Amino acid sequence: MLSFKDEDRRDTLHSDQPLVSVVIPAFNASTYIERTLRSAVRQTYAALEIIVVNDGSTDYTAKLVEQIAMSDSRIRLLSTPNRGVAAARNTGIEASSGRFVAFLDADDLWHPTKIQKQVNALNRLSSHWAAVYTLHYIINEDDEIIRPGSSDVARGYIYARHLNVKYIGNGSALLVRRNAALAIGGFDSSYAAAGMGGCEDLDFELKLAARYFLEVVPERLVGYRKHPGSMSSDHLRMGKSALEVVRRSLAANPQLPRYAIGTAIDATRKYAFWECRQARRIYLSLVTLRPILRSDPRFVVRLVLQKVLRGIQHCLRLGTTTANREDQPRMKMKFDDQIPPSCLECPKETPRSRRRLMRLAAVDAKLNSTLAARAKGA
Length: 378
Fold this sequence. Notes:
Elements: E1 20-26, H1 33-41, E2 48-55, H2 61-69, E3 75-80, H3 85-95, E4 100-103, E5 109-110, H4 114-123, E6 129-139, E7 145-148, H5 159-165, E8 174-177, H6 178-183, H7 190-193, H8 200-211, E9 213-225, H9 235-252, H10 258-278, H11 282-295, H12 299-318, H13 322-325, H14 351-377
Parallel strand pairs: 1-2, 1-4, 2-3, 6-9
Antiparallel strand pairs: 4-8, 5-9, 6-7, 6-8
Helix pairs in contact: 5-8, 5-10, 8-9, 9-10, 10-11
Keywords: Transferase
Domain Glycosyltransferase 2-like: 21-127
GO molecular function, one term: transferase activity
């Protein structure tokens, strides 16, 4: 078992540092929970309480957490019946004492400086700024980096843009003011009850973005794990969940102009299409594709070109020399305590996507003015 040492420098009684409550929902997470907790307790930010919510696990998750908690007093375990990730996070929020709450899925990892940088970013802003997110790497079962996640970022009032771009990307990237999390009602557990769990974090983010400003630390400080047992590997459910989340968000915000509604639906349908493709559900892929073609007829052309390009790249790889094929494979970089925080790369943009974001930014500016006027008159 990994070693955890409760050192004086990690004492949470720091009067000059606001307490951060780390909420870790865990269901049958014994494979990864030690590594996840290690990344939490090794944060350079000292004032933490770490709440693991054991969501009805049937493996050794609870036992492992109890053993680790014996060597670090900041960790405590709460056990509940299995009710899903949203209910588990809500249990953690309700039990928390911190000014800020940070969410960490039980199979993900944090860079040691993540919380420090997020608290520094949010502390200097007014209460209108409810949360701060970071970028991420996608990692495998062995903590190796597979590829970087999206490089898209935006800050301020970003509701219309977030509906389209979905900047935050995963549930382990967000640190939020506790009072804001409570004000929007926490996480919605009705998705899991309806068999559409998977995008509850997106639902939470959109509710925050509709009412508050969001800040960003543009560095890859999260290791977002993809493995066969993870929720995100259930592609069909993720696609259905995203469509339902966006549908509910649009219904709750009828003030959005038609253009923003249309682009949000189109972007989410494209996401659902890719998820159905990865799930090898051909019929559902075609059903999802039909409305996309009405709004973006060039989508199929791009699909075909992309497939042709991948075929050419595959042929080029096959055509490498025998000597190259016999070279030792390159070691993958691990997402661990030693990895340097990465800076932001420029996201790939087309003239069309740039125009779309400019129009959506104008929508956000107008929505923000309306919210400010309402707040002033209240």
